[in-house]
Specification:
Helix 6 runs parallel beside helix 12, helix 10 runs antiparallel to helix 11 and helix 11 packs antiparallel against helix 12. The chain contains 14 helices and no strands. It binds iron/sulfur cluster (2 copies). The site of one iron/sulfur cluster has 13 residues, from helix 1 and helix 4.
Length: 369
């Protein structure tokens, strides 16, 4: 019935949990599970992407190891979740990027950085690459704005299409009609739940660590990372608006809106990923999908590098180091864009979609009561 061992194990565990139901107050997974009697692969992928891996249900469970039932919901759902990223990847020919994800992302990033540095050296006079450039348009003396916009526009468009196709495959597999994604109430509820990380709290006490003391640090660092990313995206969008509609070219002054937003977002993207990495190391390995540890670390490292290279460029933009720093930053950002559909980034999309479906199911049950 199921294609993988992880799905078969998830089916067994959900059947046990559906008889027990002790954990129904901990998160969205157990109430969603209770709406079903049997579990198709799409249902299990939905439940796995609804799980935030807080691990409370492992420590609360009377059937977890060494009990013979061997119930370990967080680890099994983490395995199913990671398999689902590969199963829904688009185009399917690139799904293998999820197998040795850390290696793939490292190689792509190193290549992109090397190509940008080589490109700068090949197409520019060394005096320009290693010279000092200030004032509006300084960056574009190293790379014409139109070339930059074309390259990054194409990479971003590709990422959006590939992510959209992946989301479409997920949505079809879990059996949801397209109309659900247009329901304002379900969307709004999912946005609130995702924005607050409502289900990353172990039922209210926080995430469990190796010492079995729950804390909220994972949630805090995730917030810093997520909102840091949004602020950086807002900074780039406003800079694009400045360039095309107001006719103002980068780099901008320290106090200008894109720089202020970029610095705040950049700090979030420095502190958040480091905190997430530390929190990850403090977690009990028994509840984690250790095989996919590299995928998590690679994505965290990419966000950290994007921010670090961006902030270094900001600090040293009026020095001869600007050319090399710009090439490195552009290489990292380009790599982040093209690897997004084949990295842990996809967890945000599938989890949000799962939350939309959950919000809809809850509303339908409330309406039928
Ligand atoms: S995880 Fe354990 S305690 Fe919780 S519902 Fe499942 S079987 Fe019951
Ligand atoms: S790990 Fe946390 S979010 Fe996942 S099923 Fe268990 S209690 Fe729910």
């Amino acid at each position: 019935m199921h294609a993988t061992d992880a799905l078969r194990e998830a089916d067994r565990l959900m059947t046990v949990c559906n008889s027990c139901r002790y954990c129904e107050g901990l998160c969205a997974v157990f109430p969603a599970m209770e709406m079903r009697r049997t579990f198709a692969s799409g249902d299990l992928n939905y439940l796995a992407n609804l799980c935030h891996n807080c691990s409370a249900c492992y420590y609360d469970c009377q059937f977890s190891p060494p009990h013979e039932f061997d119930v370990n919901v967080p680890r099994t759902l983490a395995q199913v979740r990671a398999d689902s990223y590969k199963a829904y990847a688009w185009p399917p020919a690139l799904a293998g990027a999820f197998d040795r994800n850390a290696l793939t992302i490292s190689v792509v990033t190193a290549l992109c950085v090397a190509l940008f540095i080589l490109g700068f050296v090949a197409f520019q006079d060394p005096a320009v690459v290693f010279g000092t450039h200030t004032g509006p348009g300084a960056f574009y003396r190293l790379m014409p704005h139109n070339t930059m916009a074309l390259l990054f526009g194409a990479a971003f468009l590709y990422a959006i299409v590939a992510l959209g196709m992946g989301l479409r495959r997920f949505w079809r597999d879990i059996g949801e009609p397209v109309d659900t994604l247009r329901e304002p109430q379900s969307l709004w509820q999912a946005m609130k739940d995702a924005g607050r990380l409502r289900y990353l709290d172990g039922g209210g006490v926080g995430c469990m660590n190796e010492d079995e003391r729950p804390t909220d640090t994972r949630k805090l660092y995730h917030h810093l990372t997520f909102y840091g990313f949004l602020l950086c995206f807002a900074a780039t969008s406003i800079a694009t608006f400045y360039h095309y509609l107001v006719g103002r070219e980068a780099p901008y002054a320290w106090y200008d809106v894109p720089v202020v937003l970029g610095v705040l977002g950049g700090l979030g993207l420095l502190i958040g990923p480091v905190g997430l990495l530390i929190a990850k190391r403090r977690r009990d390995r028994v509840v984690q999908d250790e095989v996919r540890f590299g995928m998590d670390v690679a994505f965290i490292a990419m966000l950290f590098l994007t921010s670090l290279t961006g902030l270094l460029l900001l600090v040293f933009r009026a020095t001869p180091a600007m050319g090399v720093l710009l090439a490195v930053h552009l290489g990292v950002v380009f790599s982040l864009f093209i690897t997004m559909p084949y990295s842990k980034f996809v967890h945000g999309l599938y989890r949000f979609a799962a939350l939309v479906r959950y919000a809809r199911e809850r509303r339908m049950i409330a309406a039928s009561d």
